[in-house]
User: Fold this.
Amino acid sequence: MSPNVWKYGLTVLALFGLIYLLFNISILENWNCHCNTVTVPPQLQSHIHSTLSGPVPTFHTSRTFYAHQGHKVSLEEELEERELLNSIAWPRPPSGSAPLALRNTSDPVHSLFSVPPSKNKEHWYVGDQLEVSIQMYDSKGQPKGYGGDFLLARLHSPKYRAGVAGVVLDHKNGLYSAQFPLLWEGSAQVEVIMVHSSEAVAVLQRLREERPDRLYYKSLYKLGLQSETTTCNMYLPPDRGSLCDYTDPLTGEPWYCYKPKTLNCSARINHDNGGFVEDIITNEEALLFQSGINVKAPIRASGSDTISVLPSRPERNSVKPDAVNLMTSGYYYEDSWRPLGAVAMRQFSSSAITQCLTNKEVHMYGDSTIRQWFEYLMNVLPGLKILNFLSEMPRKKGPFMAVDSKHNTLVTFRCHGPPISFTSMMVSQLRYIANELDGLSGGPKTVVAISIWAHFTTFPVEVYIRRLQHIRKAVVRLLNRAPGTLVIIRSANPRALKNRISLYHSDWFSHQLDAVLRAMFKGLDILLVDAWQMTVAHRLPHDIHPPPAIIKNTVDLILSYVCPSHMR
Assistant:
């Protein structure tokens, strides 16, 4: 081997070693875990079980267990929590109402919506607002006298591949309204679905508060030839055994596992999804969760469900954002998302994306719904090459680093810390978003994208509020030290609710978390990507991982902010 070749090889190895060190420097700091054993009183030792060979622990807990553990909560944070919980309060069936029976619950087959005639008795125009009335009935055909049903609505046109999400208002007497801005010329068809009856929502409310253990986790402990697997969660009843405390020292985010019988807490090597707890509702309650029957079931129109929309009225020159419902973020036309904000939406080809991201860093943190953005860029950018230095970085979990050395582009993805239902992850790769943000330099050439919601649907809302408060503080610190950093927050999105998935990941849970997320980041200099409306408005079925057509529109929207039209 010639000296020049040898010298070149050493240079390449040194370069890759430097990148590896920079990306995973904090891994070395995590090998010595911050973990303590919480010992139970001797009189409770007989209840100890630390492996999954026994029954999965079940418990009823109050909100106090989910207060911020490790760090004191400020009065301001407590007040914010109270306001947020009040803002998402959901009407419950009245006390003293008839005992739960399927015939007394809201029934989409008997329920109706009606489209009113146009305002001038003749025509609808672009720029008008359509309001549809919805009357809910039970299975006996009797009108409901109270609200609380969870409904979704959209206005769409198969001909124009157009769609917009409606805003549903609950009048709390069995009557609802769905409001739509009229944004395109031609035909438009109303669609209303009942996601859950009010009675089903009441069951979900109870599960959220009383059964946060209905999705559980586990960890493997190993030392030499010895190994044990124990149950883990954000809260574990201490009367069931000694606990290993893995509370994050910086954010105070709590996480616990039952201590192995023969190994130390420091022998924990992985985090894994444990599974679902079954039989958490009665047979009678189970009748409320039948997919396509009373879960995500269509409500029919009492007359025509279609209107014809003419161009804007003569006195209007164009449709302005302030002329339509302020809660509408955009709409589809010819399958292209058209935001109602200030940005001019662009369609980005592969070469345009490459040009836009030249000399830029894009860091993505969160769940698999934001990993889709990473995967999209990997698929459309031929120059982007993934660098996998660690054997424990499987295809779907990461962390990932991708580099286009020719255009000086860096794209990364890392999942958020527990609770997360990814399977078999090394504990060294469990990072909290707030801590990761504190390690970024940031600046005008840096884009940060965050999505965190899907793995919090089984927990009380207070858990989610605490996590977002930590992330928001880190975002504020990042923007203060590095003005010009573009921070993107992705909202939740509806999903398919097959079988019993509603009991764990219902759209109602996601919708509640989404409302908290929007309120939490309101007023900050960030970009909110409204994945909820982008999914509801689209013609394709709901999916936890939205289809490629929606992902492309989402990425195009982001890039339209990164590289506005005047920068072409």
Summary: The chain is about 25% helix and 25% strand. The chain has three domains: 32-61+212-272, 102-203+286-310, 343-567. The radius of gyration is 26 Å.
